[in-house]
């Protein structure tokens, strides 16, 4: 949704006021926690493999006309490429205010905030090729113009080629009536999913005729949480009718079921007064991002969604996601703490069986949750993007793609999460994510059935979880030209395990073998 009203915040808006006085969410303790944590990895029981294209980025559709999508005119392609062979999604709220314009010399329609031309799709194809990524492309549903969408899909098939993974029809149709109330432009008034299905079918039929064999993913429904422990557990029930209706109409084995998720929303940007926003949890601080409660509620939602998709034989993808909806919260979603949240959330999704996530990015807003952004108009004009701390979190997650998930147990009072995979070459990779302000001690990692011997380590670090805009990865940072070549340091095996010291929150990628 990006620039508009986010996920579950919309779904819950009618009930927020009724539960404004709900209990506050717990945060990590300020006092020191016991200085010992043990992580045990069972390398003898590999499970599902994390797809190579698990880690994706999401952008607004109106970015397609920007010159940064041209690999010859910015460093963005290099920044994306470091993350691995993933996926690029162009859709979000802007897609339903964007017109397909096959003749770029013609004036766009009066209702359109932006237009997409065939040349834009050619640049996107070049970007996908340069970054070794696939593409999910959104088409406008709000105008109810299947012919225009079909023409755009046909041009995308021609200009992006086999890297076009799917077409997505509209953005968050389950909240169209409410988006319109907040200035989101004209939208169909889908009160029930049964009103949406015929329109979606007309689009699918038109696209199938114009671009045979092109996959369509959906329904890209809004979902998530507002940060209130009373409201949040109730929200998946609002999604059930939509997901069930989509599955009944369009479900097929191997097809992608796509959903959006944000664990929080900046309700102040929705117009709530600060007092009400604080009461419902809509102004999260870093400690709330990094709390056990947040980790638990995210895992619960992801399990719900995976079960829904797998029950229909479909592939579960979280096609748009990040930490705090409504474009984040400055001083929270652009911090080192947000990088640690990114690791915990993304690796939880991988562990629970999500086949891919697309982290949403507002490339012109470095104070948002953006991983890649232009610091100012001059940087945008020159095509010189920089990265936020959560980029390094995503980079660490990308090192786990292609690995088979291993069982992990974590013993200790500190809020430390851990994830492990066995790579195709037999190496075992373990992420230890320390999200606890009060923990000052050692995490001991043991690996049953692992390759043995020494290991190497890369550390994501920052002055504190509250540090804005700056972090290091393996002691280095992304250069201004986009180059990035982190090294690693050796870790000796001691008594059958590896000791990793934490004096402050941070994350470590340990590779054994």
UniProtKB/TrEMBL annotation:
Is Signal one of the keywords?
yes
Which keywords label this protein?
Signal
Q: Please state the span of the N-terminal signal peptide per the UniProt entry.
A: 1-26
Q: Which InterPro entries match?
A: GH, GH79_Enzymes, Glyco_hydro_b
Does Signal count among this protein's keywords?
yes
Name this polypeptide is given = Beta-glucuronidase C-terminal domain-containing protein
């Amino acid at each position: 949704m990006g620039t508009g009203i986010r996920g579950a915040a919309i779904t819950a808006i009618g009930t927020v006021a009724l539960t404004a006085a709900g209990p506050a969410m717990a945060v990590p303790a300020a006092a020191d926690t016991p200085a010992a944590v043990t992580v045990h990895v069972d390398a003898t029981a590999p499970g599902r493999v994390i797809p190579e294209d698990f880690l994706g980025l999401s952008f607004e559709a109106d970015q397609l006309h920007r010159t940064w999508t041209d690999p010859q005119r910015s460093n963005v392609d290099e920044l994306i490429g470091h993350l691995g062979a993933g996926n690029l999604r162009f859709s979000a709220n802007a897609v339903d205010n964007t017109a397909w314009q096959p003749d770029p010399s013609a004036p766009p329609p009066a209702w359109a905030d932006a237009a997409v031309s065939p040349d834009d799709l050619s640049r996107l194809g070049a970007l996908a090729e340069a970054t070794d990524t696939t593409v999910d492309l959104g088409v406008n549903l709000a105008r109810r113009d299947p012919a225009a969408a079909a023409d755009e899909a046909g041009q995308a098939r021609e200009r992006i080629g086999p890297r076009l993974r799917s077409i997505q029809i509209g953005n968050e149709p389950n909240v169209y009536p409410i988006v319109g109330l907040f200035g989101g432009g004209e939208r169909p008034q889908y009160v029930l999913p049964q009103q949406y299905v015929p329109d979606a079918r007309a689009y699918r039929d038109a696209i199938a005729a114009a671009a045979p064999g092109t996959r369509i993913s959906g329904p890209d429904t809004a979902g998530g949480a507002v940060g209130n422990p009373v409201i949040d557990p109730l929200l998946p029930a609002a999604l059930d009718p939509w997901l069930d209706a989509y599955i009944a109409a369009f479900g097929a084995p191997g097809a992608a079921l796509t959903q959006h998720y944000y664990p929080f929303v900046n309700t102040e940007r929705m117009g709530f007064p600060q007092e009400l926003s604080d009461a419902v949890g809509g102004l999260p601080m870093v400690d709330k991002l990094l709390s056990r409660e947040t980790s638990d509620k995210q895992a619960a939602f992801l399990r719900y969604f995976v079960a829904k998709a797998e029950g229909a034989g479909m592939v579960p993808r979280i096609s748009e996601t990040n930490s705090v909806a409504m474009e984040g919260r400055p001083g929270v979603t652009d911090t080192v703490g947000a990088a640690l949240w990114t690791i915990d959330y993304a690796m939880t999704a991988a562990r629970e069986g999500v086949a891919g996530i697309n982290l949403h990015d507002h490339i012109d807003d470095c104070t948002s949750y953006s991983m890649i952004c232009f610091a100012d108009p001059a940087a945008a004009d020159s095509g010189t993007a920089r990265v936020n701390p959560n980029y390094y979190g995503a980079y660490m997650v990308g090192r786990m793609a292609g690995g088979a998930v291993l069982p992990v147990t974590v013993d200790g009072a500190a809020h430390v999460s851990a994830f492990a995979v066995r790579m195709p070459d037999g190496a075992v990779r373990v992420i230890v994510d320390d999200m606890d302000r009060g923990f000052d001690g050692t995490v001991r990692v043991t690996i049953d059935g692992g390759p043995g011997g020494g290991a190497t380590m890369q550390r994501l670090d920052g002055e504190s979880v509250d540090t804005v805009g700056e972090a290091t990865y393996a002691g280095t940072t992304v250069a201004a030209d986009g180059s990035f070549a982190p090294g690693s340091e050796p870790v000796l095996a001691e008594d059958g395990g590896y000791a990793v010291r934490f004096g402050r929150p941070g994350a470590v990628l340990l590779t054994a073998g």
